[in-house]
Amino acid sequence: MSLEKDECKCPECQRRAEEHEESEAFGLAVLIALVPIMTLTLFGHIGLL
């Protein structure tokens, strides 16, 4: 059973799909924002800074 994006065209499914895309974009933005902080912390702990 495969899930395709265009399987259902009802307004509820479209709204849910949009919310899912926004949630993924926000999660990725948070992850990208945290990478420099984690890198500096790691380098600080191992004595490279």
Give me the secondary-structure category: mainly alpha
Please trace the helix and strand order, writing H or E for each element.
Answer: H
Oligomerization: single chain
Number of strands: 0
Number of H/I helices: 1
Report the mean per-residue pLDDT as an integer.
88
Q: Outline, from the CA principal axes?
A: rod-shaped
Largest sheet: none
Radius of gyration: 19 Å
Sheet-strand content, in percent, reads: under 5%
Draw up the topology in text.
Layout: H1 11-45
Structure explained in plain terms:
- Helices cover 71% and strands 0% of the residues.
- The N and C termini lie far apart (51 Å).
- The protein has 49 residues and is an all-alpha fold.
- It has one helix at 11-45.
- It contains one helix and no strands.
- The chain has a domain at 22-49.
- It is rod-shaped and about 55 Å long.
